[in-house]
């Protein structure tokens, strides 16, 4: 089982990927937009779609976007769908163009920050999210998004202070609790991480990403059967098993590599 001190680089890489996925959800939908970010049209949420369904829906909305690239809701949906497909550079290009057309729009600036963060441009992402915020009427989603970016920049204590500010603004909000839990995953404190993630998953309105992050934290502690049961709540049994198998294999490979490196170290008399 991985302990607080021994969580390996692979585990942290997986945690960062999951952390950024939840950040994408946290930044989305800020401000007054009534668009359902994370969904395409009136269909199912992107989070519950198969890879093929996401690809088909992205192609469909891409054609709509091509005919009217300045349509704000369409452009933001297209950028979100592209991120779900892993096409972060293209998503960023869509949002950069939209930000030029809507330089003071809070929703656009927030989504632009999301696209920048997904592309690894964390400092510009932080600037965009802060520009979208209004101090006299702070938006808890933007506060949490800023915290998540600070976490990625290694400013852990500042990040956690902002998570707690976001929770003051929106008590028991599952995405904020999950972001806070993932902050502890990044640090390797899996016990604290699991506590916050279980709290997040128990809240009304917790979505699939929150529960999958809990499954990740449990799996990183070597409790693969339990992690699979959590993942099965919303994924198909095949998807849940595939996710846990992937996690198990990646951790096993990393542990084997660490063992090889340890055995190759010269001994001292």
TrEMBL record:
InterPro entries registered for this protein in UniProt: TMTC_O-mannosyltransferase, TPR-like_helical_dom_sf, TPR_rpt, UCP035836
Keywords: Signal, TPR repeat
Signal peptide location: 1-30
Residue stretches of each TPR repeat: 140-173
SUPFAM superfamilies, sorted: TPR-like
Pfam family, one: TPR_19
Name of this chain's protein: Flp pilus assembly protein TadD
Protein's organism: Aminobacter aganoensis
